[in-house]
Design a protein that fits this description.
Blueprint (H helix, E strand, L loop, with lengths): L2 H11 L28 H13 L5 H7 L1 H11 L9 E3 L12 H11 L8 E3 H10 L12 H4 L2 H6 L15 H13 L4 H10 L5 H8 L5 E8 L5 E15 L2 E11 L4 E10 L1 H7 L6 E6 L5 E2 L9 E9 L1
Antiparallel strand pairs: 1-2, 1-8, 3-4, 3-9, 4-5, 5-6, 7-9
Length: 319
């Protein structure tokens, strides 16, 4: 941590606001999820940042005091090509009926990364689903959004070194490592995107690079729809089986989109799921032509998301 950041951190820790830091916080009656030790310091820092953001105050002192490593990772990611491999997502969870990450937190992260500022509820999917989710305090019936990164399920399931897909990696950054991991699964068959991913690989942890370079067995659900002007959009959900069950999960889900208007594919999100989730997603009854097609997992695709009801072809392939 640099001298100025150390001073900011000390001043913050001595301020009255520091005493508002309470993590894990006791869940409200009827809450969908309760905080655990794994949610700290992220949830506590998020609450402090939300208070500051509402007052239009600088969030850097909170980052410096509670998440200095994230500040360093943001600076590292700013210098790489990682942002260009992701699409956009909606900063709202319809099932939980709430904003996922405080807009002020996403704005700060976007500025530090050199990414475009969020447009209302629309944000850069990569930064929201990694760093943003760390600082979400929205309880859902599936737990908190950060669980995928602060728990070792993905690493244990895929046989990766612990921490290599987490918020404090020994090598790389959270965003870069997740990009290489997800991109190595979903973008191998997209020459333009995979060439861009190759430029990001040197910024990723060695275990993730090794995994991404190997052939990966996966089942892919493709949902193809034709939009106005002959534009083709394919929503791709890849399910990669774990080597062993971890945290009740059996697969890593990677969601990506191919858009002919952009002539490329891009990533949206990744998270672990269980066997029942996979079976439901690829159930034969939902496959074939003339099936409803819609974006999922908070993805935003202009001209498709919230633009009406669309039907297309849903198919499953095994690679």
């Amino acid at each position: 941590m640099t001298g100025p950041l150390k001073i900011l951190a000390v001043l913050f820790l001595l301020s009255p606001a520091a005493y508002a830091f309470d993590c894990p916080q006791k869940a409200a009656p009827g809450a969908a999820a309760a905080e655990k030790a794994e949610d700290c310091p992220w949830a506590g820092a998020a609450r402090l940042m939300a208070v500051k953001a509402d007052k239009h105050e600088d969030l850097e002192p909170v980052f410096a005091a509670h998440a200095p490593g994230i500040l360093r990772q943001l600076e590292t990611d700013r210098a790489s090509a990682v942002l260009g491999l992701w699409g956009e997502s909606i900063n709202y969870d319809e099932l939980a009926n709430g904003v996922i990450v405080h807009p002020g937190i996403l704005s700060f992260i976007s500025a530090r990364l050199g990414a475009a500022q969020p447009r209302g509820k629309i944000a850069h999917a990569g930064l929201e689903h990694t760093y943003g989710y760390l600082f979400s305090f929205l309880p859902t019936k599936f737990g908190f959004k950060r669980a995928r990164w602060v728990r070792p399920d993905i690493e244990d399931g895929l046989g990766l070194a612990r921490g290599s897909a987490g918020p404090a990696p020994a090598e790389g950054t959270l965003l870069a490592n997740v990009t290489c991991l997800a991109g190595g699964i979903a973008l191998k068959d997209e020459p333009a995107a995979f060439a861009q991913l190759a430029r990001v690989m040197p910024h990723c942890a060695a275990p993730v690079r090794a995994y991404a370079s190997r052939p990966v067995r996966r089942a892919r659900l493709s949902e193809e729809v034709l939009l106005q002007g002959g534009r083709k959009v394919v929503l791709r959900t890849d399910f990669v089986p774990f080597k062993k069950a971890a945290g009740g999960n059996s697969h890593l889900l990677v969601y990506s989109v191919y858009d002919s208007a952009q002539r490329r594919a891009y990533l949206v999100t990744a998270f672990p799921v269980n066997e029942g989730f996979v079976k439901n997603a690829v159930a034969p009854a939902g496959l074939g032509a003339g099936k409803p097609v819609q974006t999922r997992y908070n993805a935003y695709v202009e001209g498709l998301t919230d633009a009406g009801k669309f039907k297309g072809t849903r198919s499953v392939s095994v690679h």
